[in-house]
Design brief:
CATH superfamily of the largest domain in chain A: Glutaredoxin
Radius of gyration of chain A: 19 Å
Strand order of the largest sheet of chain A: 2-3-1-4-5
Number of strands of chain B: 15
Strand order of the largest sheet of chain B: 12-11-15-13-14
CATH architecture of the largest domain in chain A: 3-Layer(aba) Sandwich
CATH class of the largest domain in chain B: Alpha Beta
Number of helices of chain B: 22
Shape of chain B: globular
Distance between the termini of chain A: 51 Å
CATH superfamily of the largest domain in chain B: NADH-ubiquinone oxidoreductase 51kDa subunit
Number of domains of chain B: 4
Largest interface: A-B, 40 and 59 residues
Structural class of chain B: alpha/beta
CATH topology of the largest domain in chain A: Glutaredoxin
Largest sheet of chain A: 5 strands, mixed
Order of helices and strands of chain A: HHHHEHHEEEEH
Number of strands of chain A: 5
CATH class of the largest domain in chain A: Alpha Beta
Oligomer: heterodimer
Distance between the termini of chain B: 66 Å
Number of domains of chain A: 2
Shape of chain A: elongated
Chain lengths: ~170, ~550
């Protein structure tokens, strides 16, 4: 693998992908001891910076590391943690672990889909929420669990849903 | 620590943090200070107590009083009543669901009575962010003993004789794995800790890393010494931010004290550990897939052999062990192989941590000696089924395991007895189901999980799990015929026999075992017009290929 420091890559800057964000990513990559095996680490960082991993960012990373874009996309699409779509202001995650499932998480998620008018991994029209179903966040004592950002709602019932949404829509 | 008369321990595991235990902690500190008790009372942030159902947990020592479901408002009463006036706050004490008496002491609680803590011994007892608390309870003594007083073969021999088997689910003897890796001739070897806990409904490893991170670091160093590695990696899920933060703190402290790094304890043994983050893929719990992921690639498994012990991380001999396996090591080194081997059954020694969840009164983390029965775990420790409902089945081993019904409840559990029952130990998830749950839907839930998580490397895994899921969907929507049930069974065995790695070889287990024990529920969905759908009525997440 070519050493990244030697490659100068044009940054595909656009309105949504400002140059300073690319600079931050570039400096992170340049400061790595080695890029051998660091692709996942770099993608984590890139998702932190940009919020998601659009095609242009993936291609930028590929060129910077001197690897094919397909290899980067292969990794991005393999792992569920990486997303290629922008996120809403709040990520609303519904735990679909087994413990939550047997305590009724399936009804809760259906209700959220109905109320927000979106499917999983979609963003609401007002850009406020991204709805996600996640695998076990480990708070099984509070099943079923819904999280909005860092805030955790435990023992959620169908009737609580309006209130949760209202807390963010104001 | 010496000048304080009372310690107040507040659980700050993920479960309790979710119900505002951090605010409880802050309020306790503020009020203790305001009342002038800051010097006398020490407020400690600990890892998981295990009793997650009743969180947030607050324990007062040395009075040994155990408060449950403490809200931030209750901090005032704990300080004003308990600490200042010496009166227990009755309303916060734990009450047994079936008895009307409040229980004050931890050891009197049925939840703790039958537990035996080895891997979790420090969880809920020490502040995981303070290395000195770990050292005060004998931490890093085992590492010192291993590298200064024992040869590498002696360490391996001790672990071998203890009978410790891999706690990630496979049950491979740990000592043997170490021996095989040690025998490889190579200048560079790696010790990897598998903290990619992907089984939905299992949180053993996370609780250990959050509650007692140093025990894992210490054990990795001991293992590295034995196999001859000088570099370690902890592969951890990115979804565990708290565990990652505590590990980073622990690594920093251990390096500062020279417990990791160059020439540990003045010997010529050097060892350091890096963290690698997963990105959400269940298959990465399989060791070859995990190694691929550590290398920054897609986490697809490789064909074995060669085993990682021969050719692992970047082609070097690599030993991969699970978090809970490591957590047992320091005690084995200190107390000896015989002590450990005295616990458990003939072929499965020691204890096992289970994450008890689902339709059960006491959701939480329990550690029990091998050989205990499921009945004891579910009804004595777990407190039985809520709302007086009837027990139906328990799923062990997560998506790779199977269901065990009433008749299997009295089998002493170990690796082998669970496999005989058509399930497996797995990493330790234990989901209890009651009479309302429809078993076809449960099977379908697990199949959707494995279908989503199958990596796509082999045909049986990629296509087979999808077809299994579609067939289950057809059955549960009442459109199947009896011929479909036969086809389902046949395909299940086909996928089991022909998949590349453990994930898809075990994926059909939920189907096979529910068909075995609950055949009538499958038949009912085919034959009855008014079929019993149960509470867990299933709505598929993605509708690709679903024409119903």
């Amino acid at each position: 693998m070519t050493k990244p420091q030697t490659i100068s890559v044009t940054k595909p800057v656009s309105e949504d992908l400002p140059e300073e964000k690319f600079n931050e990513l570039e400096s992170f990559i340049d400061h790595l001891e080695t890029t051998k095996g660091a692709l996942i680490e770099i993608l984590h960082k890139a998702q932190d910076i940009f919020g998601y991993l659009p095609r242009d960012v993936q291609l930028y990373i590929a060129r910077k590391l001197g690897i094919p874009g397909a290899e980067v996309f292969g990794v991005v699409s393999f792992y569920s943690y990486f997303t290629t779509k922008p996120r809403g202001k709040h990520t609303l995650s519904i735990c679909m672990g087994t413990a939550c499932f047997v305590r009724g998480a399936d009804k809760v998620i259906e209700k959220f889909k109905e109320k927000l008018g979106v499917e999983s991994n979609e963003i609401t029209e007002d850009g406020l929420f991204t709805l996600r179903d996640v695998r076990c966040i480990g708070a099984c004592g509070l099943a079923p669990v819904v999280t909005v950002g860092d805030k955790v709602y435990g023992r959620v019932k169908e009737e609580d849903i309006d209130e949760i949404i209202k807390a963010y829509r104001g | 620590m010496a000048s304080t008369r009372t310690n107040i321990m507040v659980c700050c595991g993920t479960g309790c943090l979710a119900s505002e235990s951090e605010k409880v902690l802050k309020n306790l500190e503020v009020i203790a200070k305001a009342r002038g008790y800051a010097e006398e009372v020490q407020i400690i942030k600990t890892g998981c107590f295990g009793f997650c159902e009743q969180g947030p947990i607050v324990k007062v020592e040395p009075d040994n009083v155990f408060y449950v479901r403490v809200s931030p408002k209750d901090a005032k009463d704990i300080i004003d009543e308990h600490i200042i006036k010496g009166r227990k706050v009755e309303r916060l004490l734990y009450m047994e669901p079936n008895e009307n008496e409040r229980i004050k002491k931890q050891e009197d609680m049925p939840f703790y009575k039958k537990q035996l803590r080895v891997a979790l011994k420090n969880c809920g007892l020490i502040n995981p962010e303070d290395v000195y608390e770990y050292i005060a309870l004998g931490g890093y003594e085992a590492l010192g003993k291993a590298i200064t007083k024992m040869t590498r073969d002696q360490v391996i021999d001790t672990v071998k004789r203890s009978g410790l088997r891999g706690r990630g689910g496979g049950g491979f003897p740990t000592g043997l794995k170490w021996e095989i890796t040690k025998k490889q001739e190579s200048d560079v070897k790696f010790m990897i800790c598998n903290a990619d806990e992907g089984d939905p409904g299992a949180f053993m490893d996370r609780s250990i890393l959050e509650g007692d991170p140093h025990s894992v670091l210490e054990a990795m160093a001991i293992g590295a010494y034995a196999i001859g590695a000088d570099k370690g990696i902890i592969y951890i899920r990115a979804e565990y931010p708290l565990a990652i933060a505590r590990l980073n703190t622990a690594l920093k402290q251990a390096r500062e004290l020279g417990l990791l790094g160059k020439n540990i304890f003045g010997t010529d043994f050097s060892f350091d550990i890096n963290l690698k983050y997963g990105a959400g893929a269940f298959v990465c719990g399989e060791e070859t897939a995990l190694i691929n992921s550590c290398e920054g690639k897609r986490g697809e498994p490789n064909f074995k052999p060669p085993y990682p012990a021969e050719e692992g991380y970047w082609g070097h001999p690599t030993c991969v062990n699970n978090v809970e396996t490591f957590a047992n090591i320091p005690s084995i080194i200190m107390k000896g192989a015989d002590w450990f081997a005295a616990m458990g059954t003939e072929r499965s020694k020691g204890t096992k941590v289970f994450a008890l969840a689902g339709k059960i009164n006491n959701v939480g983390l329990v550690e029990v000696p091998m050989g205990i029965t499921l009945r004891e775990i579910i009804f004595d420790i777990g407190g039985g089924i809520p709302k007086g409902k009837k027990f139906k089945a328990v799923q062990t081993g997560g998506p790779s395991g199977g269901v065990i019904t009433e008749e299997g409840l009295d089998t002493p559990i170990d690796y082998d007895s669970l496999i005989e029952r058509g399930s497996m130990m797995g990493s330790g998830g234990m989901i209890v189901m009651d009479e309302d749950d429809n078993m076809v839907n449960i099977a379908k839930f697990y199949l959707e999980f494995t279908m989503d998580e199958a990596c796509g490397r082999c045909g049986p895994g990629r296509i087979g799990t999808k077809r299994l899921f579609e067939m289950l969907h057809k059955i549960s929507s009442g459109k199947a015929t009896m011929a479909d049930l036969d086809a389902l069974k046949q395909l299940a065995y086909m996928v089991k026999d022909s998949s590349l790695c453990g994930l898809c070889q075990t994926a059909p287990n939920p189907v096979i075992s529910t068909m075995k024990h609950f055949w009538d529920e499958y038949v009912a969905l085919v034959k009855d017009e008014d079929h019993p759908q149960g509470e867990g009525r299933y709505v598929p997440k993605n509708k690709i290929g679903m024409k119903s």
